[in-house]
Structures are given as C-alpha cells and as structure tokens.
Amino acid sequence: MTYDFDHAPNRRAPDAVKWAVGENELPLWIADMDFAAAPEIREALGERLDRAVFGYGDIPESWYQAYRNWWARRHAFSMDPEGLIFCTGVVPAISTAVRKLTTPAENVAILTPVYNIFYNSIRNNGRNVLEVPLKNDGGAYAIDLDRLETALADPQTRMLIFCNPHNPVGKIWDRETLAAVGALAKRYGVTVVSDEIHCDIAKPGRGYIPFASVDETCAGVSVTCIAPTKAFNLAGLQTAAVYCADPLLRHKMRRALNTDEVAEPNAFAVTAAEAAFNRGEAWLDALNVYLWENRALAERFFAERMPAFTVTKAEATYLLWLDGTALGVENLPAFFRERAGVVLSGGRQYGATNAFLRLNLACPRSRLNEALERMADAVNTGTASRAAAVSPTKRARSG
Ligand SMILES: Cc1ncc(COP(=O)(O)O)c(C=O)c1O
C-alpha cells in the first residue's frame, strides 16, 4: 500500500491543542503530527467500535505479545512479559515514578535542554529539579558524564529522568553512553526512568538502543516508558506501557500505577496499541522516509536562507532544534509568531533560552515549505527590531 503524507485532515476545529491558533497561523509546535493515523489502525478501531460495548476492559495476552514482538523485531530487545505494565500515558507513568519512588524535597536529575513536562512531573510533586546541562558543541550534543556523576553522587538525588532518544535535540544515545549512565546510577543507587516514547521515529535504517537492553546493570536500575502514541500519532488514545526488568522495581511500579489509577485502559487503548505494533509497520517505515525528507529540506533551507541558525543534526524524532543566538533576538517564538504567523516552541521551556526554537517537522511538505518561507521573510526583513514576549497557546501539558 502507498500512503499519502502530502495531505492531512483539517485539525483546526474543534479540539486539537496544536491547532488552537489564529486563522492565518501555522502551528509547528506541540509534538503531535498533522497526518491521519495509519489506515490499518483506523480499521482496527472501527472493528472495536462495531463490537458496540464499552465496559471495563482488561489487558489481554495479545497486548503483551504485540509489545514484545515489536521490540524484539525492531529493536533487538527481548522483553520479559512479566516486566510489562499497561499505563495510560508516559507522563502519568513518569509522574507516578517520581511520586512513589522518591520522597518530597529529593532531587530528580534531568539532562537539559529536555522535554518541558519533566520539570512539571518533578515540581508538581514537590521534588527538586536538578539540571545537568548537555554539552553543546556547535549543535552536537553529548552527556557531560562528570557533571552527571556529581549530580548523582549527591545522596539527595534519587532519580534521573532520561530521554532516549532525546527530545528536543533528537539524539540517539550510543551503547557506551547508556552503559556509563547505568553504571553511575548503580554506583549511587539512583533509579533511571528512561522515556523512550520517541524511539520509533528515526532516520530510516537507524535504530535506537533500549536502555534496559544494554546490560544487567542498566536493566536493574531502570523503569522504561514506551508507547505507540508518538510514532503512530495516537496521543489522544492514552495508551502506553512501563517496563521493569527488576522484580522489586516492577512490584513498586505496578502498585504505584495502580494506586494512582493510571493502570486501566479505555476501550480503545489496547486495540490501538496492538494494531500499531502488529499492523502499522509499513506505514511507519513510509512515514520515517517522509519525515527524513522533510528534515533534509528544512536543513537545506536554513543553510541557504537563514544561515544565522545552527541546526542540530538529529537521528531521531520529528523535531528540529534550532540555535538562533546569532540573530540577536531575545524572544524568537514571539518574533516568528508576530512577524510570520508561525507558532514554534521556545527553548526556555526546555531549560535553554528563547534564542532556541523547536520546530515540528511532522506536517505535509507544502505546509513546512510555507512556514519556512514565512520565517525567512521575517528574518530577512525584520530582525532589526526586537519582538515582545508573547508565549504560544498556554496549556499545562504542551510539549
Ligand atoms: C519525551 C516525551 N515524553 C512523553 C510525552 C508525552 O507522553 P504521553 O502523551 O504518553 O503522556 C512526550 C510528548 O511530546 C514527549 O516528548
């Protein structure tokens, strides 16, 4: 089957967070895609709808098999079925882990810039955010293992929330780095919550390495959060999983998710996950090809038309991380919203400054082109004056 990513449904009304923007504004911010979900998934959901009963559901054996087969086939990782636990989302799982595996006022480390909601999960539960900045060498990001060790060696630090691949910089961490992070966590008794929600959006042919697959140390210290929602654009269906290889961590997380009431599926959650992993592979492969063409187009465009931006080379995610420091505009999201009608995510929410931007590439190419043209016009005619501070549509969970 061929898939059409050049056309997308109208999401403007009535309920898409991403599209709650002005009439002429183009939203390239929050991390969901403008594309329709795979026809194979829509068909499976239709069949589920036709069953016509939406009472309480259970997690069937086929759900465990779908996750296990996918990770074995796509990511060379054989998961123990005992270690998989259903939950309603990755953010709910992270917040639960923070709440139930640490105590108030303890430190939770994060590698910044990073997904903004990590800050919320930590702060909303009365824990301290301990920022460990990534090293940034002209747009090439790496973990500063010395700084990470200092952070984890503090006995007040009990958890690291890790992003693999990393939002927003799009980095796939290599095996040595993952092993080093695992070894530090083990040495200092820190739990690693590895958020792997972006793992299936990657450069064609490039795989990521699940943290828990690296070695026994990594497996033993970690709680992994996975889901079909990012790659298959199903976030609104609230379907995810936690994987714990260690029996004690598994027991704690199972209890924790349960008592936080985020361990039970809505009527479509199981069907959607199974359909994505069992029937969605061809669609996903085609999507990744399309997204990487979008990325290449954007990289070329910035090099030719907006060379003041440093574009981070990424191997995963549909996010483009841009360093616009050289433009000398303090608030780039406001600048582009006012001057170009393009809504982007500002770097400040990820722990950088608003001289950085995150641009979502997951839209039809014509829309991406139009947004880039508008941005180039704004840069090439308007960088002399400074934009006022206006933040994009406010939402508690926008990221
Ligand atoms: C790194 C990361 N984790 C989690 C989420 C959201 O997960 P969920 O919708 O399953 O709560 C996002 C969404 O953008 C994300 O980028």
**Could you estimate the helical fraction of the residues in percent?**
25-40%
Secondary-structure element sequence?
A: EHHEHEHEEEHEHEHEHEHHHEEHEEEH
Percent of residues in beta strands?
15-25%
Total count of strands = 15
Low-confidence stretches: 384-396
Number of discrete domains:
2
Spatial sequence of strands, sheet with the most strands: 2-10-9-8-7-3-4
Q: In CATH terms, what is the architecture of the largest domain?
A: 3-Layer(aba) Sandwich
Q: What CATH first level of the largest domain would be assigned?
A: Alpha Beta
State Rg. Answer: 21 Å
* Global geometry: globular
Small-molecule binders: pyridoxal-5'-phosphate
Please report the number of helical segments: 13
Distance separating the two termini: 32 Å
The CATH topology of the largest domain is given as: Aspartate Aminotransferase, domain 2
Structural class computed from helices and strand pairing: alpha/beta
| CATH homologous superfamily grouping of the largest domain | Type I PLP-dependent aspartate aminotransferase-like (Major domain)
**Biggest sheet descriptor:** 7 strands, mixed
